[in-house]
Amino acid sequence: MSSSETTTTVVARCHCGQLSASAEVPNSAFPLRTTLCACNGCRKLSGYLAMSFTRLPHSAKPLKITGTPSRFTSSTGPDGCDRCFCSNCGTSVYDDSPNVQAQSFCSGALTDHAKLARIEGHEFTWFADDGGLSVWLPKTTIWEVGDDQTPTEGNHYAEMDVKIPEPGEQEGVEASCYCGGVKFVVTRANEQSRGIDWPSDILPKRDGGKKWVGKVCACDSCRQAGGFHLAPWVYVAHVNIRDTDSAKIFDFGAGLLRAYSSSTGVKRHFCGRCGAKVFFRNTKRPDIIDINAGLLEAKSGARAEEWVEWVHEVAEWEDAKDEELVKALKEGMAERKAKLQKLASS
Fold first, then answer.
1. Could you say which DSSP state residue 253 is in?
2. Helix %, strand %, coil % for the chain, to 5?
3. Whole-angstrom Cα distance, residue 298 to residue 275?
4. Cα–Cα distance measured from residue 287 to residue 293, given in angstroms and rounded to the nearest whole number
5. Is 277 helix (H, G, I), strand (E, B) or coil?
6. N or C: which end of the chain has fewer CB within 10 A?
């Protein structure tokens, strides 16, 4: 970067404000490139169906860090990655991998992603088995991960025939964060969970109530608290979340699970070691827990559709900062919903 070139300060910040990272980026480098990574490591490290990273150009000045991050070194990628998150609120803020020349910000933590960056593609979608988030963003190109990062034509997961797996006989699906510090099992709805006072929009109905309802949330709080766009929540009765070892009802004070009060009556839980986002709890409905879908280890793939009935509408999108992304998601979900309705009527 020449000394005469003008720059813009790019800032990524956690929800509580205790951790931030900034860099001076040449104006010629905008818009920055954001990709959605669906590899197993990124899903388990975030709890989301895809981690969204905004890559800084080689010409950007070194990061300026305010606050002390929690660091977790994962084995994802050829040289591993250092994921840096806030120890207080759990927001993933930046990737500080020592063997990678260009650093990355977690795009949901950027203070103005919509103006500074553009989502260019999905990466490592084959890890998701079912394409994960990519089927809801069909116009976003899937990138082949090779030496030249050559994009494929279109989005082959979105173009595939729609098939929704049946619930099957399996009584529980395991879930865990990347490091294994938080583990639990989600069981099928039963008489006890059906007796809960469910809001109508998340009441389990499909296949005799065997599938839990899932929604993708685009609200500003979920974006900033997670560090990534588009939080995939699955709504499960607390009585159906069980300890992996004892089969007892899961204790939210156990193990490495940490809690952060993001607003009145709301607690967001994350793993204190690897930073994975795990649960959302609201005192207005204490018996219903929101689980981040990226942690589920379902046989069918990342969306876990033998366990989850996804509502093909974007939840809480009104205060979303990235209007272009929300518009693309709403259109993609509408297309997917139409395919499902056609399948059901055939």
1. T
2. 20, 35, 45
3. 21
4. 18
5. strand
6. C
Q: Give residue for tokens 């995939």.
A: 232
On whether the CB atoms of residues 220 and 321 are closer than 8 A, the answer is yes
Residue that the structure tokens 């860090």 belong to: 65
Helices (H), the chain: 40-46, 113-116, 156-159, 191-194, 206-209, 220-226, 323-345
Task: For residues 330 and 345, give the distance between their C-alpha atoms in angstroms, rounded to a whole number.
Answer: 23
Per-residue pLDDT of the chain (346 residues; tens, 9 = 90+): 556 789 999 999 999 999 999 999 999 999 999 999 998 999 999 999 999 999 999 888 888 999 999 999 987 654 567 899 999 999 999 998 765 556 899 999 999 999 999 998 888 888 888 889 999 998 887 765 544 455 555 566 666 666 777 887 788 999 999 999 999 999 998 888 989 999 999 999 877 788 999 999 999 999 999 999 999 999 999 999 999 988 899 999 988 999 999 999 999 999 999 999 999 999 999 999 999 999 999 999 999 999 999 998 888 888 888 888 999 999 999 998 898 888 878 7
Asked, as a colleague might, if the bond just before 57 is cis with ω within 30 of 0, I would say no
Residue 95 corresponds to which tokens in the numbers above? Answer: 């990737």
Contacts 24+ apart (CB under 8 A), 216-219: 216/136, 216/310, 216/314, 216/315, 216/329, 216/333, 217/314, 217/315, 217/316, 218/314, 218/315, 218/316, 218/317, 218/320, 218/325, 218/326, 218/329, 219/315, 219/316, 219/317, 219/319, 219/320
Give the residue among 93, 20, 37 at the shortest CA–CA distance from 270: 93
Strands, E, within 56-155: which ranges? Answer: 64-66, 70-74, 81-85, 92-95, 104-106, 117-123
Residue 196 to residue 187: CA distance in whole angstroms: 16
Residues 6+ apart with CB under 8 A from 230: 48, 49, 50, 52, 133, 216, 217, 218, 223, 325, 329
Place of tokens 């197993």: 40
> Taking the C-alpha atoms of 318, 324, 328 and 331 in order, what is their torsion angle to the nearest 10 degrees?
50
Closest to 7 (Cα-Cα) out of 21, 22, 23, 24: 24
Angle at 261 (CA atoms; ends 213, 313), nearest 5 degrees: 25
Cβ distance 171 to 180 under 8 Å? Answer: no
